[in-house]
Every structure is written in C-alpha cells, then in structure tokens.
Design goal:
The structure is a single chain. By secondary structure, this protein is α/β, with parallel strands linked by helices. It has 11 helices and 9 strands. Helix content is about 40%, strand content about 15%. The strands form 2 sheets. A 6-stranded parallel β-sheet has the order 3-2-1-7-8-9, with helices on both faces. A 3-stranded antiparallel β-sheet has the order 5-4-6, covered by helices on one side. Strand 7, helix 10 and strand 8 form a beta-alpha-beta unit. Helix 1 crosses helix 11 and helix 7 runs parallel beside helix 11. Bound molecules: 2'-O-acetyl adenosine-5-diphosphoribose. 2'-O-acetyl adenosine-5-diphosphoribose binds next to helix 2, strand 8 and helix 11.
C-alpha cells in the first residue's frame, strides 16, 4: 500500500466517524423506524438471497419461483418443503448477532423504535426486540395450504409436507411465510406504513431494496420528512436517495452507532 492510499483510508475512517456522529445525533430521543433485510442475519450464518456465492447451490439449481411461490408448491410440494426444512434447520441453530443486539439497545436511546423486517428467522425476537413487524411471516410455524389452519409441533427432517390434522381437511402444510405473488398481511403492512410515515429517522439495514412493497417504505418515510440512513456493505438502488450511507456490515456499524450514542 502506498502512503497516499494510507492517507485516503484515514480520511475515509474520519468521514465514517463523522457520519456515525451525525446519525447518532438524529437518533437520540427520536421516533425511529428500522427496515431490515437478510443482510442483518448474515453474520448469524444465514445466507442472503442475492449473494449467490454464499448459497448452497439451490438458487443455481432451481428457479426461485419454483421454491417460493404458491404455483411452485402446487407443482412440487416435496421440493419446496425440503428447501424450507433446510432453511428452518439453519434458522433453528442460529443466534442473534451484534447487529440484532445493538438494535435492542437502540430502544434505550430513542423515544420510540419499531423494527420492520422482511426476515422470517425471528432473530430480532430472540434478541429481545419489543416492537417487531414481520412483513414476510416466519419460517418456524406452519399452516395448511388450502384453508390456513395453524399447525403445532411439526417435526424437522420430513421429506414432504404432512397433511393438516384439522377435521376433514386434507390440505398440505406449508410454512407461515409470504411467497411471491401473495399479499403481505394487510394489518402488518399498514402498521409498517404508519411507522414509516410518522418517524423522524428511518434506518434501512441489509436489504437489496428490490422486493415490493417493503422497498417502498423508505420512500414513504422520506416523503414524510424523515432522515434516511442506510447500512450495507454494498451500494443498492436506494443508496443515492439516502441522507447518510454507512458502508459496512450491520454487526460492525450498529454497535459503532451505539458507542456514539453513549458519548452524547
Ligand atoms: P437480499 O438477499 O436481496 O439482500 C441482502 C442485502 O444485504 C444486500 O444488499 C447485501 O449487500 C446486504 N448485506 C450482506 N451482508 C450484510 C451484512 N453483514 N450487514 C448488512 N448488510 C449486508 O435480501 P432482502 O433485501 O432481505 O422474500 O430480500 C428481500 C426479500 O427477497 C426476502 O424477504 C425474500 C427474498 O426473496 C421472500 O422470500 C418472499
């Protein structure tokens, strides 16, 4: 590394410190809403959807629309069941990371904090987040495909979906997630939109911002006058719209923000 590049990296670090201090100032005693995506759980060992190199090969081998759509489930329920069973095992073994834990700590510094997530892993709940809005459901509970009866105690490791035990219902069980082509739970979506429209700071963490309607929430917040802050190691389509982009992983940047808040 040349001397010039060492200087530049110092400048980059002091720039990041200033940006962290600015964001911490906005967050202190604010009404804050947070939108998280798969990136925040990556440091817990759960693969993201669009980091192909980190996938186990399923995205390479199968069309995602065959794994996460009602049509895919109807055509090949065993394949879809096995894919979710694989992911459920990963989630069951995972623990919240420093990013999830820092968001719980952030509650102490904000006047109000709500977390809206696209993740189905429930790691925010495990970390202790109080107000969680799960836009895409969760991977740990089940309901039947035809009539939505909830199912308890579904074992892991089955090679195909079991049938619903409800009286006279022979429908197959499916995970309680939202698939492509399905509507998000309307009450949760409208609650999330209200949180976005009424917050002063909107944090967007670890999402590629490509999946609607979650991807529109930052714009709802910005239109209502909120500061937009993005945390991601890579730029996304949202990056050029935000007030501050904090480049880095959630597990590093969020604890650094808490450290800044402690100094105010
Ligand atoms: P994606 O997999 O599309 O995007 C993950 C984002 O996290 C990318 O922008 C990465 O750069 C970023 N990232 C990676 N590591 C990170 C880290 N350690 N800290 C912070 N960010 C990191 O995930 P989502 O945007 O959540 O929907 O995907 C949205 C929806 O698409 C998912 O809920 C799922 C998927 O298909 C359904 O299954 C319906």
């Amino acid at each position: 590394m040349s001397e010039d590049s060492a200087d530049n990296s110092d400048i980059a670090h002091s720039g990041q410190d200033k940006a962290l201090a600015r964001v911490a100032g906005w967050l202190k005693d604010s009404r804050c809403a947070v939108l998280t995506g798969a990136g925040i759980s990556k440091e817990s060992g759960i693969p993201t959807f669009r980091d192909r190199d980190k996938m186990t090969g399923l995205w390479e081998k199968y069309d995602p629309s065959e794994l996460a759509t009602p049509g895919g489930f109807t055509r090949n329920p065993a394949l879809v069941w096995q894919w979710y069973d694989y992911r459920r095992k990963l989630v069951a073994a995972a623990r919240p990371n420093a990013g999830h834990l820092a968001l719980v700590e952030l509650e102490k510094y904000c006047r109000r904090l709500s977390v809206i997530t696209q993740n189905v892993d429930r790691l925010h709940l495990q970390a202790g987040t109080e107000k969680l809005l799960e836009l895409h459901g969760n991977i740990l509970t089940f309901r039947c495909f035809n009539r939505g009866h909830q199912a308890e105690d579904v074992p892991m490791g089955l090679s195909e979906p079991p049938a619903c035990h409800h009286d006279n219902c022979r429908s197959l069980l499916r995970p309680n997630v939202v698939w492509f082509g399905e509507s998000l739970p309307p009450d949760i979506l409208s609650h999330a939109a209200r949180e976005a429209a009424s917050c002063e700071v909107f944090l967007v963490i670890g999402t590629s911002g490509l999946v609607q309607p979650a991807a529109s929430l930052p714009f709802t917040a910005a239109r209502a006058g909120a500061k937009l802050v993005e945390i991601n190691p890579d730029e996304t389509p949202l990056t050029e719209q935000v007030d501050v982009f904090l480049k880095g992983t959630a597990g590093k940047i969020l604890p650094a923000l808490i450290a800044q808040l402690k100094t105010i």
